[in-house]
Design goal:
482 residues, alpha/beta, four-stranded antiparallel beta sheet, 13 strands, 30% helix, globular
């Protein structure tokens, strides 16, 4: 664990920056710091929502949706919000691969969603994530944690890929996964997804799956009391098709076969938020609330976005490198440690930073194999109130094998490459065409291309991006040395 003096200093800094920690709270934290160092390391739960828009969470949206998210907002009131958090890819499988590896997504040899073998080959990607790159769960397992994965996997297995490694090979002690995984839980998966009409009777209806995942998470933690636990809780919600309960359909005017309607989405969002409340309440009931780091985010932007309603006005959505596809709500809560009710608008935090940041928070070393491969930064000081600025750029490649020129009616698809450095973001195709630059602090919705106004900076950033893209691995040339 970090030494006691450093810990208290960081709490005091939080009080100065945010005004969120009173003098009495600081004294109490100092009195308990020595005990914390000797006590069990904190539990860690990572909630990785599926296809959530920045505007889906009421406490993040400038214009909240009709359906509010009081339980997720409660988490925000009890923790810290990051308004500049980025996932590593605007689509599920590579985004998840980056979380486990701490690497820029295409460096993991996953370029888009994992599918049938033929489709994977056409997308120039492997059929599954190499277990050797699962640095995050392996770091916690090596640090003495009991580890579990609950929910969506989509990192190999299912469809016609029958040789994917067991999830246990990625550093997990136990797991309960959905249909696109090597060994799905019969209640969560089979050969078909939970919304399929031909699913077996043992498989839960879609609207019951998040509750089941919450139950498995709480049960795992309860059974492992006395040992710190690390859980990746990855629900299928709020991915399409939107299939709320019959009660949810009736309440919001949805219909059973309208899995992409706004009314159906409202039912799913409301029920998903309710399950997040059950998770919070369950931790409190089990006496684990104070010693659990819980963070909440999503894998990529929404689809559909309903005319930018779910992206809170930001351009793009799932499958694009504009802000609506890669900027997500991020909340982290650790009672008594992370200042409650605070917001960080300065730190550009990424999914690739979770490996070094979380290991620093709980005081365990990252596994040696990640040294020289992982790309993220330790931004743990930002969790205690310091407005830390990242020192390395965020790099993106999406759409490697698709034509650079979009269809005329698809103006928000965007180029194949992107880089965020400082306040600036550059997008460009692999052939150097369609150069775009935005100041995403002043122009979050990416309305004004300033590449001509700041041509020198745009060219320098695009060159850095294009040079990086040439080093990326492929199916025939894997894992370049860094």
């Amino acid at each position: 664990m970090p030494d006691t003096t450093d810990f208290v200093l960081r709490l005091c800094m939080a009080a100065v920056v945010f005004g969120a920690v009173t003098a009495n709270q600081t004294v109490a934290a100092q009195a308990g710091a020595t005990g914390t160092a000797a006590a069990q390391k904190p539990n860690v739960i990572m909630v990785f929502t599926d296809d959530m828009g920045y505007g889906d969470v009421s406490s993040f949206a400038k214009t909240p949706l009709k359906v509010k998210t009081p339980n997720i907002d409660r988490l925000a009131k009890e923790g810290m919000k990051f308004t500049q958090f980025y996932v590593a890819m605007p689509i599920c499988s590579p985004s998840r691969a980056s979380v486990l590896s701490g690497m820029h997504a295409p460096e993991t040899q996953i370029t888009t969603y994992l599918q049938e073998r033929k489709g994977n080959k056409q997308a120039d990607q492997n059929d599954f994530l190499s277990p050797a790159l699962a640095f995050l769960p392996k770091t916690f397992a090596a640090g003495g944690y009991a580890t579990a994965h609950v929910g969506k996997w989509h990192l190999g297995g299912g469809r016609d890929v029958d040789n994917a490694p067991s999830i246990s090979e990625y550093g997990y002690k136990e797991f309960w996964s959905t249909w696109e995984s090597p060994e799905p839980d019969p209640k969560l998966g089979s050969a078909v997804p939970s919304w399929n009409d031909n699913k077996p009777p043992t498989q839960l209806d879609r609207w019951k799956t998040t509750g089941y995942m919450v139950d498995r998470t709480l049960d795992f933690m309860k059974r492992n009391q006395g040992t710190p636990t690390f859980v990746t809780l990855w629900p299928e919600d709020v991915h399409t098709p939107f299939t709320p309960s019959p009660e949810g359909l009736k309440k919001h005017g949805g219909k059973t076969k309208e899995g992409r309607s706004l009314e159906n989405f409202y039912g799913v969002l409301e029920e998903y938020d309710r399950e997040m409340g059950r998770l919070l309440d369950g931790l409190k009931t089990q006496g684990m609330e104070d010693n659990t780091i819980l963070f909440f985010t999503s894998d990529n932007g929404p689809n559909p976005d309903f005319n930018r309603l779910r992206t809170d006005g930001m351009r793009g959505s799932k499958g694009t490198l504009y802000e609506g596809g890669i900027r997500e709500p991020f909340i982290i809560r650790w009672p008594g440690h992370i200042p409650a009710g605070t917001q960080n608008d300065v730190t550009v935090l990424s999914a690739i930073d979770l490996l070094p940041t979380l290991s620093a928070l709980v005081g365990i070393p990252v596994v040696p194999e990640s040294i020289g491969k992982a790309d993220g930064e330790d931004l743990s000081k930002a969790m205690f109130g310091q407005p830390v600025k990242r020192t390395t750029p965020l790099l993106y490649e999406f759409g490697r094998t698709r034509p650079a020129k979009p269809r005329p009616n698809n103006k928000d698809r965007g180029p194949q490459l992107a880089i965020r450095e400082g306040d600036l973001k550059v997008l460009v195709n692999r052939d150097g065409s369609d150069l775009q630059m935005y100041n995403v602090v002043k122009d979050r919705n990416e309305t004004t291309n300033i590449a001509d106004q700041q041509s020198t900076a745009a060219k320098e950033m695009s060159k850095k991006l294009l040079d990086w893209s040439k080093t990326l691995p492929s199916r025939t040339h894997p894992f370049p040395a860094k």
